[in-house]
Write a structure and sequence with these properties.
The complex is a heterodimer of chains A (282) and B (247). Chain A is mainly α and 282 residues long. Chain A is built from ten helices and no strands. In chain B, helix 6 links the parallel strand 7 and strand 8. Classes of the chains: A mainly alpha (282), B alpha/beta (247).
Chain lengths: 282, 247
Amino acid sequence: MTYQPSPLRLQRESARRQASRRSTTIALLSTLAVGVLVVIVITGAKGFQLVRESFFSWHYAVHSFPSVLSGIWLNLRVMVIAEAFVLIFGLLLALARTSKSPVLYPLRLFATIYTDIFRGLPLLLVLLLVGFGIPGLQISWIPNSAVLLGTLSLILTYSAYVAEVIRAGIEAVNPAQRMAARALGLTQSQTQRRVVLPQALRKVTPPLLNDLVSLQKDSGLISVLGAIDAIRAAGIETAQSFNFTPYLVAGAIFVAMTIPLTRFTDWLTRKQDKARQQQGRW
Amino acid sequence: MSALELKNLRKSYGSELVISDFNLNLERHQVKVLIGASGSGKSTLLRCINLLEEIDDGQIFLDGEDISEVGVNADKVRASIGSVFQAFNLFPHLTVLQNITLAPRFVHGVDKARAESDALELLERFGLSEKAHQYPDLLSGGQQQRVAILRAIIGKPKLLLLDEVTSALDPVLIAEVLSLISELKSDGMTMLIATHEMGFAKKVADEVLFLKGGQVLEAGSPQQMLEAPQSQDLKNFLFALEQAGRL
């Protein structure tokens, strides 16, 4: 016999449909109301015309686009190089901090002090200290390129963040996993490499990517050292025209560059949550 | 020469004495079963034997060699003892095959192809070959525990320690794990087993030891222990098991 939904079920389903239609309508109306309100407040402001011209000028946007775009090329190179070094140093710092071996005590101490300092120091300050302090020493063999020193500052700061994320991952691996690995005869370092780290890195991939997104946009800060990146290029354009639109162009390109990584992070997080949900383990 | 000999073993956590004055002799191919309430020291004893816990006093001999001596290579000792735990502890990021071949490849230095063919042979023998390339999460508890046992025996250990390996499983799954262990016994595996499964103890044990407060209170053949317990403590323990429907 085929299944006939009972009247009770049909009634419930229609009630649910009605409720969902109602919430959609409410969401639409409230979005519309907020939108209209925002438009009225902004366009009604006294300085609206002036702001529109100096920040949203199509003419200056088109005009500055090529030079901002060539600045972005520098940001991109800085990002990729900094990301690579940050992942390596962050991992090494995390390993040093979580090591138990007495021989490595000095290393552990160094890693702890390092992360404490560079997690606390504002990036801008690190940039100024490294970017102007190191050339100030006038050591002949140290290059005083703004790009190089800017990248170094990013690496110094972000390695500390990433190290903490990876450390959290290492500590989140169930101790029983370590015990099981040691029981098989794996050494301390084999256990770390083959059992603990692979699990730890999987756990922290979303927050790790989040830090990388943050690093991408902060690569714009190297402009304070005079490197001609996208933001600096926009600044030069602005200085010529007294129109701020080039900054917005740079901002839009930054957003466009980080969105793929952000979406990827979201996707990965969702996938992991789903996998966990299916196993009923929360 | 015994496969395993414990002499006057003592272990405490802080002021709490967990194992005191413990002596044990396990011959090759012999199976001894440890029973006793939770906290009687069974798990601690097993963890002391594979050097996951440091002992306070006494000696442990594996094949006549003192492994409790300071300066002994603990990794090497552990590589020659198989251990299986209550919570399986399979590595979730590795497939069944990778779990089983991890120690052969990286501890015993067997090349990958050889390690995999050995592992597949073992999986085949115990009816798990179709699970070889799956991740542990997709396996039932019984399958996971059987894989954990195979992972422990693939290196041909001198001794296999089983720590309440069925406590986290339902009865149907318990049966499949126990039948695997019985098969290991007929292979001649030397085993020290902590369990609450009395029927199983009766089937595989050459001797049953009843532990209380970190000491052997009573020991004997399974029949003797289960049918004619001497001490009041063992009588109480067996009565409690019966009440819980586990005898």
